[in-house]
Amino acid sequence: MAHKILIVDDEPNIVISLEFLMKKEGFEVAVANDGEEALAKVASFFPDLMLLDVMMPKKSGFEVCEALRADPANANLQIVMLTAKGRDTEVAKGLAIGADAYMTKPFSTKELVAKIKSMLGVA
Amino acid sequence: MLSGWFILLLSTAYLAVLFAVARFGDARADAGKSIISANVYALSLAVYCTSWTFYGSVGRASSGGLSFLTIYIGPTLMLMMTGIILKMIRISKVHRITSIADFIASRYGKSQLLAGLVTVIAVVGVIPYIALQLKAIAASLDVLLLEGEADFLPWWLDSTFLIAALLAVFTILFGTRHLDATERHEGMVAAVAFESVIKLLAFLAVGLFVTYGMFGGLADVFQRAAASPELERLLHLDASRAGTWTAMILLSGLAIIFLPRQFQIIVVENVDESHLKRAVWLFPLYLLLINIFVLPLALGGLLHFHGQAFNADTFVLTLPLARGAEALALLVFIGGLSAATGMVIVETIALSTMVCNDLVMPWLLRSSGLGASKDVSRLLISIRRAAIAVILLLGYIYFRAAGEAYALVGIGLISFAAVAQFAPAMFGGMYWKQGTRAGAVAGLSGGFVVWIYTLLLPSFAKSGWIGNGFVEDGLFGVSALKAQALLGLSGLDEISHCLWWSLLTNLGLYILVSLNSRPDAVEAGQAERFVDVFRHSAQETDHRTWRGRASIDELVSLLERFLGVARARQQLMLYARGRGAVSWQKLPADADFVHFAEAQLTGAIGSASARVMVSSVAQEEEIGLEEVLDILDEATQVRAYSRELEAKSNELEQATAELRAVNERLRELDKMKDDFISTVTHELRTPLTSIRALSEMLHEDPKLELTDRRRFLGIIVGETERLTRLINQILDMAKLESGRAEWTSTEVDLGDVVRESMAALGQLFRDKNVALTAALPDRCPPVLADRDRLTQVMINLLSNAVKFVPGGSGKVHVSIHANAQRLQVEVADNGPGLTGEECSVIFEKFRQGGNTMTDKPQGTGLGLPISRQIVEYFGGNLWVESVPGEGANFIFTVPLTAPEEPQGDKKHGS
């Protein structure tokens, strides 16, 4: 059964490219455009992995990550944070509040796919 | 009637009670539990009310009506000048002043000449006053003994002499018990306060008796008096005597502090400066109480004894006696005795101190009459006791000689006028550093001579001792020298006349001579310390103005000689302990020790004599005037310096605070720059992310479907444009902010700019189906601006508007309004509007309105900040007016008379 991936970003073009990329790799994909929607989608879609943008309206990626980690039901959910702010402090903060990996925008599609596959244990 | 022996016994008994009070006061003082409270101090000031008040006020009111009040208004006014009196007290404490002669002498360089002069004036001036007290007692005795018993004493001994002798013994007994460093007599003060209470009670008693016992109350007395044309005049203020009133008030105001006994009580006997605060109102209250019944008594006496021979001075006795109230008469007698004894005791003690310290001591020192006697402290006490006896004897002689020539009031005023001569030297000394010894001597002598000529000698002439030719015709027959109409100044009463001429002479000479003489070092130093007493603390500078060599043994033997061995040792012990030494033998004979010795001696023999004695055993080096002033000045400078330091440290603190604020601001700016870069980075990376991801996918998958391929390439092109726009705007913003932007200023018709911008964006509005309307004048007054920049602003506002209004129902309306100063362009939409906070936030860089109709606001977040920069460059404003839910109205203005044309921009122009 295909792994489920939830893409969370407020930038439509990035969503388009990520959605296309993930679907091409054979994942089941859902999209959320802001933090609140992301939390709702987690509850209904049960993704295995989440690509989470940091700078978003309504709820930032950090807040979403914190909220998810506070609920033990989501212990198996893997979170990859995506940020356009490449500062070290942000990377550190993201990992500290429970993100599993961190990618800086713009990212290499190959690397991203490789990282996701290794995290999900897909050869 | 009353037995003479009984009265004598009663008087003696009363004096014994006084003595007991005094002993009690002294004992308490020795035990360190002073009974001198603020109330006792205030009451003791009432020593001012002598038998002259007690008997004489009624006498004066009987002839002069209300004018007797002046003698009490003056002191009340003087006491209100607390500052002056406080300064006098402080100076006296600091310099261990023991009398008014000492005060003046000390101020003018510890001058023996001046001390002697003041003493002579005081003695000559005050002896008639003492005689007056004796006369009052004699007169009261006469009244009581009216019937036959007057000769109960042997012919060579009259009752007044007996009273005088009793007073002398009493005064000697507790006025000269020992030589005190501060010359304070707490027992005496207690006794005087006690007497003040007695005389007030006695006077109130007789007042009540006459007013309510003999008459039907105050109203009755005044009504009956008003009915008599003779008495009616006493109830009115006599306008023609206004000059006399002024003179009397001035005279009595000066007397309350300069009479030797008043100076003694107010200044020397003061134990706590705060007591003065109580005295300021309690003493005037006392004066008011003791004066309430003066006029009723006077009127009552005049009414009662109408048509008979009477002496108005003794109404207070004759009125009760007329009704047979002997007990009351005795109480009144005791009251009068109180008034007289209080005055005599304090006055003679004060005078004896002055006579001893300032007349006898200098003479003894000069004639080496002291010999080599080991202990002269006994001698000093003997001198004082003798002085007391002699002063009282002189008073008695004056009383006998002057006899009946003068009413009581007249004698008292002569004394007042004498001590008023101290005023220029005293006040000048306290407030005018330029006042010199020569000036003080000249002023005092001049005033004293004028006083003798215009007041004392005429009073002698009235008594028939000397011819009265100089009064009637002028000295040597020169009419300008008439004693009581000098230089033709007539029309004044004798007291006002004397006061005017003597004070004019005194003050004139004091000022003129002072200005034309130079003080020596000692005097200049004292002037500084007196005038600035509140700045120079007691010990701070005094010892530094003394330099020389001294031997401890010599100074100690000096102290032992004048204070007595026991007392000197005691003071030395205290002093040594104060300096932290085990015994005084171990102390160095330094300036401080010399100063201590001199201060101790000053308390015993006065400042002038003390200085002479100390310099006889200590080889003082001459210190120049300049140096003394420098030393005294140094203290001032040190204070000024410390104030400066304080100011400096305040400044530093302020500077630190400013630096901290600037630092904070820099930190803030740094953070803003950091945030800005971080934001720019974010804005750049976001389109790059899409571009990279999509192009990688296109690159790796050549078999991608055509529709996807086209879609991706479209996005890539769009994101590239977005990047370009962003970079352009960032650069634009940077240029605007740094002032390096290029401007082409020409005359622009704003209407054309708006129309062109609307045309350029017309398609955008049509695509989204948004109505764009405008209300524009055909011709706008031209403004001086850059056409392209204004277009940029307009396009920014229009594209913002279309972005935020809903498609289909959206409406945007543009209008231009003109007034005399500026054009105003408004772009109104019916979008979601902005909150108050958003209204200001949206003009910050990269801050976009969050509540957008699209999912993600398009644009860079730099449009509005750039537009605002542009509008402000042309001297206008850009702002937004909005209510959430009711659309937003963006407004900018451009002034018609453009501000100064930016220099050098023209050359870039078209």
Overview of the structural elements:
The complex is a heterodimer of chains A (123) and B (910). Chain A has 123 residues and is of the alpha/beta class. Chain A has a single domain, classed as Response regulator (Rossmann fold). Chain A is 44% helix and 20% strand. Chain A is built from five helices and five strands; from the N terminus they run E-H-E-H-E-H-E-H-E-H. A five-stranded parallel β-sheet of chain A has the order 2-1-3-4-5, sandwiched between helices. In chain A, helix 3 (61-69) links the parallel strand 3 (49-53) and strand 4 (78-83). Chain A is globular and about 30 Å long. Chain B is mainly alpha-helical and 910 residues long. Chain B folds into four domains: 4-21 and 35-77 and 124-367 and 386-401, no CATH class; 537-623, no CATH class; 628-738, Orthogonal Bundle (Helix Hairpins), CATH 1.10.287; 746-909, Histidine kinase-like ATPase, C-terminal domain (Heat Shock Protein 90), CATH 3.30.565.10. Chain B is 66% helix and 5% strand. Chain B contains 34 helices and nine strands. Chain B has a five-stranded mixed β-sheet with strand order 4-6-7-9-8. In chain B, helix 16 packs antiparallel against helix 17. In chain B, 45% of the residues are buried. Residues 850-857 and 898-910 of chain B have low confidence and may be disordered. The A-B interface holds A 10-14, 16-18, 20-21, 24, 33, 55, 57, 84-87, 104-110 and B 678, 681-683, 685-694, 696-697, 700-701, 708, 711-712, 715, 718-719, 850, 855-856.
